[in-house]
Design a protein that fits this description.
The chain is α/β, with parallel strands linked by helices. The chain contains 27 helices and 22 strands. The chain has a 7-stranded parallel β-sheet, sandwiched between helices. A 6-stranded parallel β-sheet has the order 10-9-8-11-12-13, sandwiched between helices.
């Protein structure tokens, strides 16, 4: 390449050292290699931090993104656009960018005016809809895409339909290292005279290290001088969630198998120079990983390229790299096979050294200096592909074209309503009211909110504590003798009834279903699954279409993870027919509803049919769900166009007058949720607009022109009366607002991509 085409400034976006993360190491090594090959090129870094205080980054770090702060990604785009950057090199991994499937990165990429080269570190064969959507949008916005294996390249064509002429295959880089006898380094580690087996990398249960340890007793009997070194700190995410549980379990296993003289744990994150020494001492390297779909492994690349004899489970990268005798593959979770192959390799020095030599020679093609040259070629292709095209520009958008500006999420008032028992029902102004105590309805709503907050990374330790309090309340509310939930509890923790309302039963099932289908907390999933199945049968005996609707939405949540549950699906069909029968009985050309009156939480009835119709491929349910929701939105529209929920002071009986007041937050919240479900199924922008219109009721676009939420605390007033706002801020109202806000936040995240993927059968938008 001639000097006239030299790239002056490159920005690398991804995680970065000293963060303990495989992507951070990759970004660091790639950046250093490119900089070394082109000393006149300025190579700086825009890292993503996952902790509020950030990291002590090196001087090449110029701007910092915050994982769960979407606006920081928008600011990052502005910084890059204003910094005279010629190419941006993105390291893409779903789990590092915040938002559903890491879609916060799209906020940066969509505003970027610079050629983008993206390295894909994870490519899923069976992606969830959101994962597929995010990857497709990242690919669309990229000038070039880099993958590290042929399998990854093939997946992009076969699964995602991407044009392969846009894809560059560049293997994972490895450090320069001479081909040395392992015995040269052993005295530095005190293992002279020993045969050393090594595994390195951040530790987690997915690494499968316990299977190697279980293989060792047989290996030791054949090779008494063997030592297994496990190098690496526990993965930071695992450490935050579970502490050192996994490592301590491995240490107990070593003691139980009497292997203390044969296993060494090095609990630290090592730099490149020290890693080379550890690699140098190893006679055999093992990757016993448990995920077959791992498309690339940096640790495998390093060990193989540095001339190690490798034994591995057959995940995708290992299958490709170790084919044709370049290494040894063993079945997943098979300690006997590991023992057999390890004994065979340690006992056959000629075979082991031949394997080492083949690996080392192959590795000379992928040293970081050579990989850097290939990246630079890709960068130049990216610039050429932009040549002659219109540069992406910032777009000035009118209000109807732009993003819907949402209030900042504030949980101050929600926290104020909690005590050690759960969330209190009512408030006098903003002060919690002890007199009315607690109810299952509100604790179930609050539990649902905490689960939704997980999806945007807002589940702080404090929020997790609130979730545990709500879950404990719901658990205690369940009466195993009746199979149903009690509802009202006094402030002194006495149940005020033996059997709660049908609504409480349905709302509890909704929250439990969300715990099963959405929560990442394994203990919460397991508890909720068991209680959901114990509580579900009693809903079949309820005559309430509203309770049936709550339960149906809960079943939809439950099926996000456990869609093969036949018993639950049978009850889903029964409850769906109950709603459809209600519609057939009570509707006519002037009254498109399931009951002889519109009362409360009305939109949830339509919402439930949309959920169940999608799950059961029931076109009648889908069409009636959309039809009734559209009719309800017409009824709930004031003369001036604002949202006007059915008033609770009389409701709206058929052939009667529709009450204008008191207007309740629960109606606006239920309507937002139902309209977002309609939008998700139909992709008709009308429903997104209607969801926003209903939400604006909270913000002051209502009959009184007064805000119903407290911007300072995130609390919500108890409704609109004919002449004033009810200034009490109870749990039901506050949770209605916060749930609507969080659902819109999640929906707005998914709006980043113009290509929207619809789960399930299509919904007729014109119904």
């Amino acid at each position: 390449m001639n000097a006239g085409t030299a790239i002056r400034r490159i920005a690398f976006v991804g995680t970065y050292l000293p963060r303990k993360c495989g992507i951070a190491t990759f970004t660091h090594d790639l950046r250093d290699a490119v900089s070394a090959r082109n000393p006149d090129t300025e190579c700086f870094v825009v890292p993503v931090s996952d902790i509020p205080e950030g990291y002590d980054y090196a001087e090449e770090v110029r701007f910092e993104l915050v994982e769960e702060d979407r606006e920081s990604f928008e600011r990052g785009a502005d910084f890059l656009n204003l910094s005279d950057i010629e190419v941006v090199c993105l390291q893409h991994e779903y789990g590092i960018f915040g938002g559903p499937a890491g879609n916060h990165i799209l906020a940066l990429l969509r505003e970027l005016q610079i050629p983008l080269v993206t390295t894909l570190h994870t490519i899923l064969e069976q992606p969830e809809a959101t994962q597929r959507r995010v990857l497709m949008e990242v690919a669309r916005l990229s000038s070039r895409i880099i993958v590290m294996t042929r399998r990854a390249q093939r997946l992009l064509g076969e699964i995602y339909g991407l044009p392969l002429e846009k894809v560059d295959l560049i293997p994972h880089g490895i450090p320069e290292m001479p081909f040395v006898d392992p015995n040269f380094f052993k005295d530095q580690f005190g293992v002279e005279g020993k045969t050393v087996v090594l595994t390195f990398g951040l530790m987690s249960p997915a690494k499968g290290i316990e299977y190697v340890i279980r293989a060792l007793p047989e290996v030791v009997r054949a090779c008494p001088n063997v030592v297994y070194i496990v190098l690496g700190a526990t993965h930071p995410n695992l450490l935050r969630e579970q502490g050192e549980t996994y490592r301590l379990g491995l240490e107990r296993l070593v003691k139980e198998l009497n292997l203390r003289k044969h296993v060494v744990f090095c609990n630290r994150f090592v730099g490149l120079d020290e890693l080379k020494e550890f690699l140098g001492v190893a006679d055999v390297y093992i990757t016993p990983y448990l995920n077959p779909a791992q498309v690339v492994s940096g640790t495998l690349s390093y060990a193989f390229g540095c001339g190690k004899a490798v034994i591995s489970t057959p995940y995708w990268h290992a299958e490709e790299l170790l084919a044709e005798g370049r290494g040894v593959l063993v079945p997943f979770r098979d300690s006997a096979a590991l023992a057999r192959e390890l004994i065979g390799l340690l006992g056959d020095e000629v075979r082991r050294h031949a394997m080492r030599k083949r690996a080392y020679l192959a590795g000379r093609e992928v040293t970081w200096s050579r990989v850097a040259d290939r990246y630079l070629e890709s960068f130049h292709r990216a610039r050429q592909s932009q040549s002659g095209r219109a540069t992406r520009r910032h777009t000035m958008r009118t209000l109807d074209q732009g993003r819907f500006t949402l209030p900042v999420l504030r949980l101050d008032h929600l926290r104020r309503l909690f005590d050690r028992t759960g969330i209190l029902q009512h408030a006098t102004f903003s002060l919690p009211s002890f007199e009315e105590g607690y109810c299952t309805d509100d604790n179930a709503r609050a539990l649902l909110l905490t689960v939704l907050l997980e999806e945007t990374g807002d589940d702080t330790l404090e929020v997790q504590g609130l979730a545990s309090a709500c879950a404990a309340f719901v658990n205690y509310a369940f009466n195993s003798q009746t199979g149903s939930f009690r509802n009202f509890m006094s402030f002194d923790r006495r149940w005020l009834e033996k059997t709660g309302s049908d609504d409480a039963q349905g709302r509890a099932l909704w929250a439990l279903g969300a715990c099963v289908g959405r929560s990442r907390r394994r203990s919460l999933q397991m508890w909720a699954t068991q209680l959901f199945n114990r509580a579900l049968p009693s809903i079949a005996d309820s005559a309430s279409v509203r309770a049936s609707a709550f339960a149906l939405v809960g079943i939809g949540e439950y099926f996000k993870r456990l869609s093969g549950d036949r018993h639950v699906d049978q009850l889903r069909a029964l409850l769906t027919e109950r709603l459809l029968d209600g519609f057939r009985t009570h509707s006519d050309k002037d009254w498109s509803w399931f009951e002889p009156a519109l009362t409360y939480a009305n939109a949830t009835l339509s919402h439930a049919l949309l959920v169940s119709g999608r799950l059961g491929n029931n076109q009648d349910a889908l069409e009636i769900g959309l039809h009734t929701l559209r009719w309800l939105m017409q009824v709930q529209t004031a003369e001036g166009g604002c949202f006007r929920p059915i008033g609770s002071n009389g409701f709206y009986p058929r052939d009667g007058q529709c009450a204008r007041f008191d207007q309740q937050p629960i109606e606006a919240g239920a309507t937002v949720s139902a309209c977002l479900e309609a939008f998700a199924g139909s992709q008709d922008e009308f429903w997104l607009s209607e969801a926003r219109r209903a939400f604006e009721w909270f913000l002051g676009r209502n009959d009184l022109g007064q805000p119903v939420y407290d911007a300072g605390t995130g609390g919500c007033y108890d409704g609109l009366q004919v002449d004033r706002v009810n200034l009490n801020q109870g749990a039901e109202s506050t949770l209605a607002f916060l749930l609507a806000l969080q659902e819109l936040r999640l929906a707005e995240c998914l709006m980043d991509s113009p290509e929207r993927v619809v789960d399930g059968p299509p919904v007729a938008a014109s119904a």
